[in-house]
Design brief:
Distance between the termini: 65 Å
Helix content: 25-40%
Shape: globular
CATH architecture of the largest domain: Alpha-Beta Complex
Structural class: alpha+beta
Largest sheet: 6 strands, mixed
Number of strands: 19
């Protein structure tokens, strides 16, 4: 940043500002084409004026970030410029379906340091981290006094790097454990099981659509098929979407033929259809799909296709109404991710679900069962929690008995799920 005093520090800041200015010009040129250089020249003029005249010396990094974020995020409410480590790592975790870590689930906020259970076959489990262990420090850095974000940051690192944990067990006594960080699956398929063993009704929830979801989904269906599943509840409540092609591929399990979704943008419209020669045999079992106001984007693509093809009965409340597809680009040198709305989609029958002041939006369920905001929040929290592995259940039960504390929250009252089960049992749902 330019200064009137000519100090060495000011000169360094000025050079940084010049380099960052060059960087933003390069990124802007990649993000969109220009008919001329006038707009970039004007940007540089304004940037230089701010640097020279603002009452305090602005942070050059922040000027770049604000300029880029404002350009992208002014387009619509879904286009985003992600530049902080927290933003880009969260986005990558949601889309990749994996993360680097040690694999523990904490009891309450992470900064408390108390392990509820290690995930099955995780690095933490392999290193001997146990149910109820208190993590006192990571690589010599105490967890006490750390915010949750700071505490989580201590567990991150390169794949193959070692985290040294200082632990205190429930019965006392301290010990050290060396845990090798690994790339771990962040499951998007949650709680697959026979929810009604007598009638062999299966259940599974999808928390998002990542690059790993299809493989998870296929494994879950195979396991339920081995238990002779005769009906399925597919829970999309609170699912904000994710990878479009994942939702399209998943529809192939239930849609025997025809269009799955249509998109339109600046280029030619695209129609996504089920390939008649697809190797996946569509399932013919009774299917109920749960949706609510948290079901958006790719969730609505899947739910809309199943509803239009009458492959499922939709139960719950109206969906969010995000009928837009984002294109994503990683800018590695800048450490940034840009996603912009590149097309709109409709259901196979041509329904436009996008939020609008002129017409109803979202998907209207076939069976409407409303819940209040508190109940919905409890249901979403239950859907998103991790199930403890079978090997941790005895230790969790013993901990509950000794502490007289309920460690695993009870399942919330769920009239929407009850309505879905009633339909699959051939009964009339209450409240419908």
């Amino acid at each position: 940043m330019e200064s009137r005093h000519g100090s060495q520090g000011s000169t360094s800041t000025f050079l940084i500002g010049v380099l960052l200015g060059a960087l933003i010009v390069g990124i802007l040129a990649k993000i969109r084409p220009f008919s001329g250089e006038e707009d970039l020249d004007h940007y540089k003029e304004v940037r230089d004026f701010v640097r020279e005249r603002y009452v305090e010396e602005p942070d050059p990094d922040e000027l770049v970030r604000i300029a880029l974020a404002a350009m992208v995020e002014s387009l619509d409410e879904y286009s985003r410029y992600l530049s902080t480590t927290a933003e880009t790592s969260t986005f990558d975790r949601e889309t990749r379906g994996s993360f680097t870590g040690i694999g523990v689930v904490f009891k309450g906020p992470v900064e408390g340091g108390r392990v509820l259970f290690p995930m099955s076959r995780s690095p933490a489990a392999k290193a001997g981290v146990r149910v109820g262990d208190l993590i006192l420090s990571v690589d010599g850095i105490p967890l006490e006094g750390k915010t949750e974000a700071e505490a989580r940051g201590l567990f991150k690192g390169e794949v193959g790097s070692i985290a040294t944990l200082k632990l205190a067990g429930l019965s006392g006594g301290e010990r050290l454990a060396e845990v090798t960080r690994e790339s771990l699956l962040d499951p998007t398929v949650r709680h697959p099981h026979l929810i009604d063993a007598e009638r062999k009704i299966g259940y599974l929830a999808l928390t998002s659509f990542s690059h790993e979801t299809m493989e998870e989904f296929d494994r879950a269906l195979t396991a339920l098929d081995k238990r002779e599943m005769e009906g399925l509840v597919l829970d999309l409540r609170g699912n904000p979407g994710g990878i479009l092609m994942c939702a399209i591929d998943m529809a192939r399990y239930f849609v025997p033929e025809g269009v799955i979704t249509k998109t339109r943008g600046r280029r030619n419209p695209v129609v996504y259809e089920r390939d008649p020669e697809d190797q996946i045999e569509p399932m013919s079992l009774p299917l109920v799909v749960l949706v609510d106001g948290g079901s958006a984007s790719a969730s609505e693509v899947l739910a809309g296709a199943l509803q239009d093809h009458r492959s499922a009965v939709l139960v719950g409340s109206p969906t969010f109404g995000k009928a837009r597809v984002q294109s994503v680009r990683h800018f590695e040198e800048a450490g940034a991710i840009v996603k912009v709305t590149s097309s709109y989609y409709t259901t196979p029958s041509g329904r436009d679900l996008d939020r609008s002041t002129e017409r109803p939006w979202g998907i209207q369920p076939d069976v409407m069962i409303e819940t209040d905001a508190l109940s919905e929040a409890l249901i979403h929290r239950h859907i998103n929690r991790y199930d403890p592995p079978a090997e941790a259940l005895d230790a969790l039960s013993a901990w509950e008995e000794s502490s007289e504390e309920k460690l695993l929250p009870p399942e919330p009252e769920d009239p929407q799920l009850e309505a879905a089960l009633a339909l699959l049992r051939g009964e009339r749902p209450e409240g419908s």
